[in-house]
Amino acid sequence: MLEIEKVSVRYSSDEWALEKIDCSLEEATITGIIGPNGAGKSTLLKAILNILPYSGKIRMKREPTKKWLKKIAYVEQKSAIDFTFPITVKECVSLGTYPEVGLFKRLRKKDWEKTMQALEIVKMERFSNRQISELSGGQFQRVLLARCLVQNSEVILLDEPFVGIDAISEQIIMQTLEQLKQAGKMILIVHHDLSKVEQYFDQLILLNRRLIAAGPTKSVFQENSLRQAYGENIFIKGGSET
Q1: CATH number for position 186
Q2: Which of 9, 14, 42, 226 has its Cα between 20 and 30 A from that of 119?
Q3: DSSP letter assigned to residue 108
Q4: Residue 66 is assigned to a structural domain of this protein
Q5: How many whole angstroms separate alpha carbon 201 and alpha carbon 33?
């Protein structure tokens, strides 16, 4: 179980990014983190990862998450990643082995086999020798998920993984995440397309700097809670947040 207790993050002395967030998440679930722009969704992931300073407590199985960092995989927004870095697809995926193997150590045959198996799962094996700069946005997102598979983490955090990708890649990613859930993994996804929420997520965290609601998707994804988060002009059926 992931426990988030009175977690707050400040942008500055007088501006909150998150304020006193309280919720808990069960294992073997896919949880969506939703809310308007600037609601603190990505900030919450970074607090879990101890990337940002925060007040309050975040625990995984009753231990501080900093003790779990090797068991947490993180895929940040594509816009924050350098696509021009000279690395092949299989080399990018193999980076997921380093928490176990160690930096600057030669990868073993079994590590490369694990890398190729992960690429096969996301249907990217035939691109293994391509430079990452040659991939589409959807293909690259599948490569980043393959890197998580190689890492064999207990918890997987994804920040806006479906932005700017094709429908086939989105389908492959969700199928893979469902398989990971069945294997007992906990998955948290920052997400913006409200039209897919009921289809994709078992649980939701609805934020607007404060916690609006958290729990099973059916109980959180209600008009009253959504209006509290997004305001009165929200339009859901078409997938818009305006």
Answers
A1: 3.40.50.300
A2: 42
A3: P
A4: yes
A5: 9
User: CA 147, CA 88: separation in Å to the nearest integer?
Assistant: 13
- In the β-sheet with 2-12, what is the strand arrangement from edge to edge? 15-25, 2-12, 55-60, 63-64
Is 92 contained in some domain?
Answer: yes
pLDDT (tens digit per residue) in 178-195 = 999 999 999 999 999 999
Residues 236, 66 contacting (CB under 8 angstroms): no
Distance CA 163, CA 166 (A): 9
Q: Is 242 exposed, middle or buried (0-12, 13-18, 19+ CB in 10 A)?
A: exposed
pLDDT digits (tens, 9 = 90+) for 35-72: 999 999 999 999 999 999 999 999 998 998 888 888 99
Query: In terms of residue numbers, what domain contains 63?
Result: 2-230
Q: Residue 105: which pLDDT band, with cuts at 50, 70 and 90?
A: low
Closest CA to 17 of 63, 75, 71, 56: 56
* Entry pTM: 0.90
Q: Which of 55, 74, 75, 58 is nearest to 66 (CA)?
A: 58
In whole angstroms, what is the distance from residue 9 CA to residue 94 CA?
A: 33
Residue among 140, 170, 33, 35 at smallest CA distance from 79? 140
C-alpha span between 67 and 197 (Å, rounded)? 31
